[in-house]
Amino acid sequence: MRTLAALHSILAFASSSLTDLSIRWPTWPEWKRVLFLQDYNTRVVMLGTMLLGLAAGMVGSFTLLRRRALMGDALSHATLPGVGLAFLIAPSLGLAEKSLPVLLTGAALSGIAGVVAILYVRNLTRLKEDAALGIVLSVFFGAGIAILSIAQQSVGHSAGLESFIYGKPASMIESDRLLIGCSGVLTLLIMGVLFKELTLLCFDEGFAASRGYPVLLLDLVLMGLVVIVTIIGLQAVGLVLMIALLVIPAAASRFWTQNLKQMILISAAIGGAGGFVGAAMSALFRNLPAGAMIVLVCSALFFISMMFGTERGLVVRSLRRRDLNRSVDHQHLLRGLFELQEIRGPKAGIPFSELQTLRSWSSYRLLKEIERCRRRGLVFRDSDQNLSLTSSGVVEASRLVHEHRLWELYLITHADVAPGRVDQSADAIEHVLEPELIAQLEELLLQRRRVQGIAPSPHPVDAEQAS
Amino acid sequence: MSALSNWSWDYDGWIVLAGILCAIAASLPGNFLLLRRMSLLGDAISHAILPGLAVAFLITGSRSSLPMFLGAVVVGLLTAVFTEWIRNFGEVDEGASMGVVFTTLFALGLVMIVQAADHVDLDPGCVLYGSLETTTFDMVEVAGMEIPRVVLVLSAVTAMNLLVVVLFFKELKLSAFDPALATTCGISARLMHYLLMIIVAVTAVASFESVGNILVVAMFVVPPATAFLLTERLRSMIIVSALIAALSATLGHVSAIVVPSWFGYRSTSTSGMMALCAGILFFVISLLGPQHGVLIRILRRQRLSRRILSEDLIALLYRMDERKSGVVASIDQLRAALLSSGFMSSLLMKQHARKGHVIATENGYQLTDSGRRLGAELVRSHRLWEQYLVSEGGVAVDRIHGQAEQLEHFTGRELRDRLQQETSAPVLDPHGSPIPPE
Amino acid sequence: MSGSITQPPDNSLPLSVRDLTVAWYRKPVIWDVGLDVSPGQLVGVIGPNGAGKSTFLKAIMDLVPRASGRIEIFGQSYKRSRHRVGYVPQRESVDWDFPVSVLDVVTMGLYGKIGWCMPVRRHHREAALRALERVGIGEFANRQISQLSGGQQQRTFLARALVQDADLYLMDEPFAAVDAATEKAIVQILREMKQAGKTAIVIHHDLHTVPEYFDSVVLLNMRVVASGPTDVVFTRDNLEKTYGGRLTLLDEATEAMRRRERTL
Q1: A146 vs B98, B263, B273: nearest CB
Q2: Which of A180, A385, B5, B308 has the most beta carbons within 10 angstroms of its beta carbon?
Q3: Nearest to C144 among B35, B232, B388 (CB)
């Protein structure tokens, strides 16, 4: 239904103004006019949507970390009955029915009612979060539609209302931008003051409660921030697309950083960029609704982040995984050759088939690794195609074996902390552990070697004995 | 009831039937969405199908229902697939990935439709308009009967959902409850997920086209949630949710006609009122439900804390009486020791006086024999527990009081006897106070 | 039961793991683990928190991706011998508010055998009820699962594993936070399984009971520190290697907590 209404207004708008078929590229003066904010209207719209993106990006970071990304979805729908009621009641208070302050007050009140309803369902019944959001979303929206449908009869022209709900950035005026700006500063202030507390709330609610933080109140503050941002966004980009601004920038910023402060900044930047570029494109090209364009720009940024993000991006992660697999293979090959040649003497070549049975690696992976090591001059094939370590290979392998034994020893001597710190892909143990610790481990390794003779590995009972 | 005087079965009857069918069709898969904590997926899918409709229209250039229907279902499924991808590959949490996908698809759909509107006259009223009020505008003849097309479509969808839920009941149940076990049993949890997604998408699209999507989004969530609060078995949850869905659809249409008339308006949006009625039913049941109702639980908790306070008062009086036989304690003394409210304490002491446990004197209350017996039981439980915690549980002496304080209220004669046995019938508790005999 | 028909005709080991490495990002969780388990054994897997014990079980069942390694169950890949593996997950892994009865949960162990789209029949429910009686909670069969105590929930999971009638059981901390009676019941069941020639690999926390419960142990701390028959491997020296020399303190702390949990 809401989709329909959106369609309706858009189609009405489109069919009235457009008759030509071609896409027309804007001319240079047009580019300049938009990008340098020369035109008053464009300036208001673009700065307004950018501010909105900034604020939504910041608030969205917290709701995302609270695993409640879709709270904006529920709360933005929850504002609808308030808008309708304000519209109905305003005339009897002697105010204009479409006066913005009245409508916003209505929206805020019913948004707060939505917050209360979410908390009621989540805390007092045995339903989970998602159900709470779903119930509030659909019931409030249903109520809103019912009220609006009545409002339509009473006034006969609630068309303005619909654009209020579905967004029409082009209609933004100076006072709207001021409103958005003030609310943005307000959200920023609240988040700045409560940064530590909100972080704790998102990270570990139980812990926060046990430390005596008013978890419920903090939750209310967070939802209140969502309501503020949603309400100011309603008129600019509309209900559904407001959700996008709350979710997408925050989700995208996760790919770039693990640090909360940076995450909020990046998220705000993505939201702001989305608002600016989206509004600009809509101003430059005809037929591109601004709200939708803002969302699409944000999603494009999201997919770029998902692919190329430096922290969790897909490319980085698959490279890391490949490096890890290679370094595992590398270690396995050199250590295997080293240990076999330790027993058979340095001249004995090791046949490929024997290497293959040593571990459960595919012959493809093994061959690849042999090739890599051969190119680096660590391994050579003798006349029988058997494999041996070169002299630099021996150096490298003994380093790896030593390192491996140090890691093993570390796992054993510092078992309580070790699992968290072992980093297999790190080139050298020194990059992870402190020098004193390594010296200590070296000492221990020497001791053991003296006591036990050749100790290839510090666990005396071998896995194969389990049966 | 004058507003209902215009009720006509030929018109309102069909509307109610269409609403009921849509509500039932949505609530069936909705149960599994709720249990899998994916309640918002219905909402997401019903937004995301927009580009599907547009693409189908642009490709075929026709406004016939079938390509539109298929296009929308495919995009609805893609929503689920993309959400899953982003969640798996990007390690983004479920809600966020859903939010990214459906808002993006919705925005894409909006852009496409604006573009399409440029080329052809895409009349939303004809293609996309779905409103329950128009149910009877499009009738088809089946077996000599005039039936609205909407009712026909929704009957088919309901039948399909019912069939899937009945046939795959056990597989859906297991993969919702414990996907790891399902996979180890050879029931692919992923396959069941997509089966569920298919029927959700088909339901959303069919309803979107015929009755608008508020109704279907609400019915995916609200009736199952209500049924969840009322039942303890999946089978009964599904049946109850269907009943609630049907009830809210019926009430919704009636109230869409009746309620506005109270304020002097004509009837309002039926599907909006149906969603609202479902919400009101949910609220009432969550408040008054017999098992898990909020009120019942509050009452139960209050009764329990009253009972505990009442027992604490007697036990305290008993302990004072131990030190100085026949002691008279004022309410202020008692409540200061228990940190309780004065009103509650005096109320409960009056109750004790009525039951003959205490005698009210000018300066306060004094234990009677029956009150002394009651107090002795409580104090005995308390001290036996302390002894038990120390001797059997190895808990430090300074930490036992709090636990014993709670346990004493839930300890009957039989348990006391067992405690006595286990602790080999001590005379003194770990603090050195005598344990009263039974 | 049909399990005895599918009893291994071959001599292949119930579980054989080679070079298993599982890594999240760059952090290995399990590193170069190798293990052979022979039939009819109760194997305890012990190790400190974060040692990768649960991941190890999940990797055996292909539930987590592995960086390297080969796993064979009865000489075949997991996929092909899936029907011979029973899994008892950690209690927290499911939603106990789910609207199913205790009997329903146990019957779920049979779903694989019942087959697609076939309804649950009376004899399935009877088998489930027998399993519930075996673990001593037959009288709770019709309760909703949230109304059970922790110990009873664990027994429900055990009964579910029993009806699966597998040959290899993987159990993730079945003894965590259960009452003493439940612990005894679980041990009893494990012994009966063993007598029936089944193999169980059990993640375990309480070091005191290890020698009493298990034939062999695997001391796991990212790698296999030691593994073998309990009387050979379960030495103070090995334990210190696994737990990093702080064993006594850690041990006392867990023991004290356990005792407190029992008294509640």
Answers
A1: B273
A2: A180
A3: B232
pLDDT at C8 over 50: no
Query: Using one digit for the tens of pLDDT, what is the confidence trace for B54-74?
Result: 788 777 766 667 887 888 889
Q: Out of C85, C93, C260, whose CB is closest to B184? A: C85
Of the pLDDT bands very low, low, confident and very high (cuts 50, 70, 90), residue A172 is low
Chain B residue with Cα closest to C160? B181
A120 and A237 housed in the same domain: yes
pLDDT(A80) > 70: yes
Domain boundaries, chain B: 7-219, 297-422
Tell me which H or E stretch contains A379: strand A379-381
Q: Whole domain around residue A409: which residue ranges?
A: 319-466
Total residue count of chain C as it appears in this document: 264
Contact check, Cβ <8 Å, A466/C225: no
CATH number at residue A242: 1.10.3470.10
Q: At what angle are helices A215-237 and A239-253 packed, to 10 degrees?
A: 120
Contact call for A459 and C224, based on CB within 8 A: yes
**Boundary (domain end) residue, out of A309, A336, A367:** A309
Q: In this predicted model, what pLDDT tens digit does every residue of C41-89 receive, in sequence order?
A: 899 998 877 778 888 998 888 888 777 788 888 888 888 888 888 888 8
pTM of the model: 0.81
Sign of CA dihedral A231, A235, A236, A241: positive
CATH code of residue A358: 1.10.10.10
A301, two tokens: 């940024």
The predicted pLDDT at position B167 comes to 93
Residues listed for chain A: 467
Number of domains in chain A: 2
pLDDT in tens, B105-146: 988 888 887 777 655 444 433 333 346 777 777 777 777 778
Interface test with A, best of B37, B98, B101, B104 (most A CBs within 10 A): B104
**Are the Cβ atoms of B392 and C98 closer than 8 angstroms?**
no
Q: Are A180 and A57 in a shared domain?
A: yes
* C93 contacts B35? CB cut-off 8 A: no
| Chain C residues near residue A444 by CB distance under 8 angstroms | none
User: Helix, strand, or coil here: B394?
Assistant: coil
Those residues whose C-beta lies under 8 Å from the C-beta of residue B411, and which sit 6 or more positions away, are B381, B384, B385, B419
Whether A446 is covered by a domain: the verdict is yes
A261 and A348 share a domain?
no
Mean pLDDT of B384-397: 75
How much is the ipTM here?
Answer: 0.83
Asked if B96 lies within 8 A of A251 by C-beta distance, the reply is yes
Could B234 and C99 be called an inter-chain contact, meaning their C-beta atoms sit closer than 8 Å? yes
A133 to B89: CB separation less than 8 angstroms, yes or no = no
| Facing C225 at nearest CB: one of A317, A412, A426 | A412
Instruction: Give the nearest chain B residue to C115 (CA atoms).
Output: B187
| CATH class of residue range B297-422 | mainly alpha
How do beta strands C199-203 and C42-46 pair? Answer: parallel
Are residues A118 and A247 both part of a single domain?
Answer: yes
Residues A300 and A323 in one domain: no
Burial A208-246 (b: 16+ CB within 10 A, else e): beeeebebeebbebbbbbbbbbbbbbbbbbbbbbbbbbb
**Residue-level pLDDT at B72:** 86
